Amino acid sequence: MIKDTNTRGQKISNNEAWDHIFQDLHILDHLTKNPYFDISADEIKKRDGKEARLMTKIDHREHLPKIMAENNLSILAIKNGLYRIAKTNPFIDIDPEPQSEPIEIGIPNEILSIDPLNIKSESEALDIAYLSKMLQQTFKEQTSLTVRGRLRGELDFSLNNIPYQVDGVQIEVDGGYEGKDALHLIEAKIGYRNNISIRQLLYPTLFWKKQKIAKVKDIKSYIFYYQDNLFRFIPFDENLLCAMHHEEFVFKFNEKSTFKLKELSPPKQSLINPHAPFPQADDFERIHSMFISLSLNQGITKNEAMNDFDLVERQYDYYLNVLLWMNLYKLDNNHHIVITSKGEELLNLGFKKRLEEFAKIIFSDSICYQILQEKNYDTQDFAKNYNLQSTNTIQRRVQTIQSWIKYFNKVFD
Question: Where would I find the beta strands (DSSP E) of 55-138?
């Protein structure tokens, strides 16, 4: 007998809901005899009442349901309301570091309607890349923006000899730029992700390869990451392999920053939230990109927000808690994310000024300031203030602050 949400009791996680689906439909048994298992949106929803579009939105490997990850399975949409589960790996891995020294490029100061140093969305980042001639250098030709947004279409491909005949599935392109020789398709992200689903890259590529334009022009695809002041364009071919040299750019600043981290004054008043846990999240560039992403999606829950990042839930909590600790966001009565007035203030600052304010908040905490100045801190006081239970836990927290110090010094130098 199939149970619904009411009979199962409390609200359950996606992992639990997928466990129920696999158990009720004997999916693992089916896959021992067949190459794939197709499941409808109705079948997904009727067990625990969860929306299929949310249950199947798996943009990164880290978001795979536990039962799929343990059995090397994945799920991809093949029709509107129909999904294929099979033993395939639909994720593209991406190098964390640029391949070469980034090219310095002039800031397009003549543009006043977009601030090149205060980019808050993927579309703004792409528009600035276009206006500053980064796209021209990447594509090796002049182009015009001709494609942006969502559409539906047909395409087919195979992974690990599993066929996928896709029909009517939503396909999204962040930017499509047509030149004399090619149509260049871009999947854009604020901040680095270590992997993305082929749905975000391969589906648009194959769709446009079936259109008339493909008879006279090449179809090329890129992942674009805007990481602080770094613009990365990573090309991929149809086989999901790097097709040519990556292009990386940074804006050239005419004046060097005069901000010196070590010269921060000793804290007189703490600016952090004392009720939030002490940070354990080493990658501050990721924290920054998460802050920008949340500002675009205020009013969503934590679980909805984490879909955009290549983090498991425990890691996501660590990173989200940093912004809570810095008083940059809060949760309303319905557990929706809301940017604080301080957060809104920082969002209106340019890139480097915002990072200066981040540093002032962080090192207003006396323990963080002592770590910055390489002074001995009171371990017992540290443990008591933040309810830390072991020396190893304290050391991991200290390591986080030390990694942030390296990050800030690199940015400001």
Answer: 74-79, 82-86, 91-93, 103-105
